[in-house]
UniProtKB/TrEMBL annotation:
Its cofactor is pyridoxal 5'-phosphate. Keywords: Isomerase, Pyridoxal phosphate. This is Alanine/ornithine racemase family PLP-dependent enzyme. The keyword Zinc does not apply. One of its GO terms (cellular component) is cytosol. Residues 9-226 form the Alanine racemase N-terminal domain. One of its GO terms (molecular function) is pyridoxal phosphate binding. Signal peptide: none annotated. The keyword Isomerase applies. InterPro entries: Ala_racemase (IPR000821), Ala_racemase_N (IPR001608), PLP-binding_barrel (IPR029066). Transmembrane segments: none annotated.
């Protein structure tokens, strides 16, 4: 069975680096745990590191957080589905919202449960995912301030999540101005302006984050240590917190070009023949992981001589290149991962998860 290893010491290093950086700049922050897909061992590790606010987009994962430590603040970070309202109020201390009718249901459920549920209103800033349009914001707030059982504790935005719109100083200034406008008009304090995410961290290091942005939500950079603006390692952080290992189940020298009439494979792909490969051979390894677990674009072999040829549902084919003499059947091939690939693997019941 293929397995993931998450390294405690490297995760601790990245957590402490971020904690120091954000506190030094006067910013509160929360860990986004959705990558871990509710794995109790890994979530406990986050809590043991000191995480006191955890964000997730699955209410079942927030339930795990509360089971481990009820005192950890939990935030549901997408607009709630109506059918999930009861559990969101039960397991999430706060939620991101964009619809008045949904907030009204949260209000009613919070009163039933004898709670105050906190809401953060997400504002559309150009990436065209979730968010109230700026022109509608004041009317929107005027309605929700009248509801009982809820407390408006923040405004926020998401950038680069759908269409790749990058954060900028101007966009974050605009978010801060929305907060000031709301506070002035309604005489209500909005404690959080949560405009910081992994992709805005490089701006923080360059002192480009407006003072009004006082809250960050960090997931990808914590686990992968990357500067998402420049697509390079984030100086001072570890990029090898998580690795994948898969076992070789076959090694054979085979032609580079398939033999026979070609048609689309089950994935809908048609093999394109490179004329220079006719008559050429290569040592191919098959490993015990496939498209059911991960898309090959998100895998990075640690051995630079190895290249990925392709995959079927449960097997992945590698060209061992000049490294073929190093390997035998039963050996493990190690991979670094991109974020979306790791997300798939953590969500797979077929991949063992280990804490090292």
């Amino acid at each position: 069975m293929a397995f993931i290893e998450l390294y405690k010491d490297k995760l601790k290093h990245n957590y402490q680096f971020l904690d120091t950086l954000l506190k030094k700049n006067g910013k509160e922050w929360a860990v986004v745990s959705k990558l871990l897909c509710g794995n109790k061992i890994y979530i406990k590790e986050l809590i043991d590191l000191g995480a006191r606010e955890i964000c997730d987009s699955r209410v079942s994962n927030l339930k795990v957080v509360k089971q481990i430590n009820p005192n950890v603040e939990t935030v549901y970070i997408k607009p709630p589905a109506k059918r999930s309202i009861k559990n969101i109020v039960k397991y999430a201390d706060a939620s991101f919202n964009t619809e008045f009718e949904t907030i009204k249901l949260l209000s009613e459920e919070a009163l039933k449960q004898g709670k105050i549920h906190r809401v953060i209103i997400m504002i559309e800033m150009g990436d065209l995912r979730e968010g109230v349009m700026g022109d509608d914001l004041l009317d929107f707030y005027e309605q929700i301030f009248k509801l009982k059982g809820i407390q408006v504790t923040g405004i926020g935005t998401n950038l680069n999540c759908l269409n790749g719109v990058l954060p900028s100083h101007d966009k974050l200034i605009q978010l801060s101005l929305y907060e000031q406008l709301i506070e002035t008009k309604f005489n209500r304090k909005i404690p959080w302006v949560t405009g910081g995410t992994s992709i805005t961290l490089p701006m923080l290091k360059k002192n480009q984050i407006p003072k009004g942005i006082n809250h960050f939500r960090i997931g990808e950079t914590l686990f992968f240590g990357n500067d998402l603006l420049e697509n390079i390692p984030f100086k001072g952080m570890r990029q090898d917190v998580i690795k994948l290992f898969a076992e070789i189940i076959e090694i054979t020298e085979k032609p580079k070009v398939p033999v026979g009439e070609l048609a689309e494979n089950p994935s809908g792909d048609l093999f394109e023949v490179d004329d220079s490969d006719y008559g050429e051979m290569s040592y191919r390894a098959i490993i015990d992981i496939g498209l059911l677990d991960i898309t090959t674009d998100f895998l990075i072999p640690e051995d630079g001589q190895i290249s990925i040829i392709g995959a079927s549902s449960d097997m992945l084919i590698l060209d061992l290149g000049k490294s073929y003499k190093k390997y035998k059947v039963g050996d493990l091939i190690s991979f670094r991962l991109k974020y979306m690939g790791a997300l798939s693997l953590f969500n797979s019941d077929y991949i063992e998860k280990r804490l090292v």
